[in-house]
Design goal:
single chain, mainly alpha, three-stranded antiparallel sheet
Length: about 130
């Protein structure tokens, strides 16, 4: 019998919490409906559309926005482009250790990408683990 009482208390408590949540949602919906009716009344009187978005933007925009200077070249987003940037900036051959240090890529990813770039004819193998741009 005590187990049932405990169970009913827990269920009752949960239902009260749920009812409170439903009540809060109902209040929010009523507020939105009242706001919508206010907009419709203004539009019906011939005052045009409701300037809610413009008003909130101007009322809340107190920060000065500074647009950064656009970069000459966007940074590379994929492994082949990232690796090719290293080859273009270097004057001579590049080894895998340097590629790993400058790109931050994993060695396996570097090996796979070098293989693809070599097949495409963009780089060539100078020595074991050392490549140069074609």
């Amino acid at each position: 019998m005590k187990e049932q009482d405990t169970f009913f208390k827990i269920v009752g408590s949960g239902l009260r919490i749920l009812a409170g949540g439903i009540h809060a949602v109902a209040e929010r919906i009523e507020a939105l409906a009242t706001e919508q009716r206010g907009r419709e009344d203004i539009e019906d009187r011939g005052f045009g559309s409701w300037p809610a978005q413009e008003a909130t933007e101007s009322a809340h925009s107190t920060k000065i926005r500074v647009t950064p200077e656009p970069a000459e070249k966007p940074p590379p987003t994929n492994a082949p482009d990232t690796i090719m940037v290293v080859f273009e900036e270097s004057e001579g051959p590049v080894d895998i250790d340097r590629l790993a240090a400058e790109t931050g890529l994993e060695r396996r990813k570097i090996h796979n990408t070098l293989y693809r770039l070599k097949k495409q004819g963009k780089i060539r193998n100078v020595a074991k683990g050392v490549y140069t741009k074609c």
